[in-house]
Fold:
Amino acid sequence: MSDLTRRPGGPPSRRARERRAYQLAVTGGVAGLVAVVGGVLAIAGVLGWGLPLIAVVVAAVCFFLFRRTVS
Structure:
């Protein structure tokens, strides 16, 4: 036992989990807002459906990663 430093592969600290959950919540919220506004603009014919679709996918991924982080 000559090296008593912690290995980097261990579970993340509580602070790291909180930071990750916060970043996922903010990113997912912004992506959801972009999806809603983009959807309204796409219905109005101002914008195509590409951006709102990508935003929905990003928001869904953030939601599932958030749930996994806090559980």
Q: What stands out?
A: The helical segments are 14-44, 50-70. The CA atoms of residues 4 and 24 lie 33 Å apart. The chain has a mean pLDDT of 93.
